[in-house]
Specification:
binds NADP nicotinamide-adenine-dinucleotide phosphate; 10 helices; six-stranded parallel beta sheet; Rossmann fold
């Protein structure tokens, strides 16, 4: 008879931590409103009507409303040009009533996404997507972090995961997720290996990892047999059918700590977005 692997890992509970963080953010938003008479405002920009993007934006707006953050939605046609999108984002950057800007990604293959992101004023870049924000984060200077990697770090810290001297393997190197996640781990003295689609013998790297961050976009790409016993597993992947980039059952049988999907990294991403929006509003309205 084949033995069925039993889960041994404890959960890194992003839902519970995000709730705590958002409760503090809501208090801060209410205090700002008392002091200035103005509520923080997040502008969301959506190009086209991709159903997943529409859902993500709606989730973020609903979360804003619960935290006392106003949102202003800018819906643009799928066929808008790069110049048109840059103009729309620039207008929000210059509007004093808007404190944070979220440009929902992806924006369509015909658009220069980087140019559109760079139109976000760094002080309003609460999603942490501009080169200015990436540079500040990499140099350890004040600024807004990319929300998903920022949420991952908050989760690891809440569970006292030791990072200094540990080997972190980040699978994925996108500018909004894998790359900044590795930079934040490096800043905390982890030894970081980035893996990507051209990595030779990726599974050998995984077997050496004390911490794995999965940011691949491929369902159940990482399995328990790829992992060292006791590893900490953070699954940032979110694929159709609520499936992560990690095969949860087999990985949980090897790991000491693991994020569920859903309920791990996703809620933390939104919680960090809200926190940074309120922080941006404080800086613009009070200091
Ligand atoms: P992305 O831009 O498509 O990047 C995927 C990365 O994975 C790339 O660096 C790619 O390598 C690498 N990759 C793809 N196939 C691979 C393979 N077979 N072997 C090794 N590496 C491979 O995706 P993303 O925007 O970073 O998102 C990644 C995942 O996170 C998706 O599931 C997405 O839905 C999820 N996500 C979740 C949140 C959240 O809030 N929870 C936020 C953002 C994204 P190359 O660079 O070589 O192409």
């Amino acid at each position: 008879m084949t033995a069925v692997p039993q889960p041994t890992a404890a959960l890194l509970d992003g839902t519970a931590l995000a709730r705590e963080l958002t409760a503090r953010t809501a208090e801060s938003a209410a205090e700002l409103r008392r002091r200035t008479g103005t509520a923080p405002c997040l502008a969301t920009v959506l190009v086209g009507a991709d159903p997943a993007s529409v859902t993500y934006v709606r989730m973020k707006q609903n979360s804003c409303a619960k935290a006392g953050i106003e949102s202003r939605h800018v819906a643009l046609p799928a066929e808008i040009s790069t110049a048109g999108l840059v103009d729309a984002v620039t207008a929000l950057s210059e509007d004093p009533a808007v404190h944070g800007i979220l440009l929902q990604h992806p924006v369509g293959a015909h658009i220069d996404e980087r140019a559109a992101f760079e139109a976000i004023a760094p002080g309003k870049d609460v999603d942490g997507v501009t080169t200015a924000s990436f540079a500040a984060m990499s140099f350890g200077l004040p600024g807004f972090v990319s929300c998903t990697p920022g949420g991952i770090m908050r989760l690891l810290d809440a569970y006292d995961v030791e990072l200094s001297g540990r080997h972190a393997v980040v699978v994925g190197r996108s500018p909004i997720l894998g790359k900044p996640a590795g930079m934040l781990l490096l800043a905390r003295d982890a030894t970081v290996t980035y893996c990507h689609s051209r990595t030779a013998d990726l599974r050998a790297h995984l077997r050496e990892a004390d911490l794995v961050v999965a940011a691949v976009g491929r369902p159940r790409f990482i399995r328990g047999e790829d992992l060292k016993p006791g590893v900490v597993v953070v699954d940032a992947g979110y694929n159709e059918g609520n499936v992560g980039d990690v095969d949860f059952d087999s990985a949980a049988a090897r790991a000491s700590l693991i994020t569920p999907v859903p309920g791990g990294v996703g809620p933390m991403t939104i919680a960090v977005l809200l926190e940074q929006t309120v922080e941006a509003a404080w800086r613009q309205l009070v200091s």
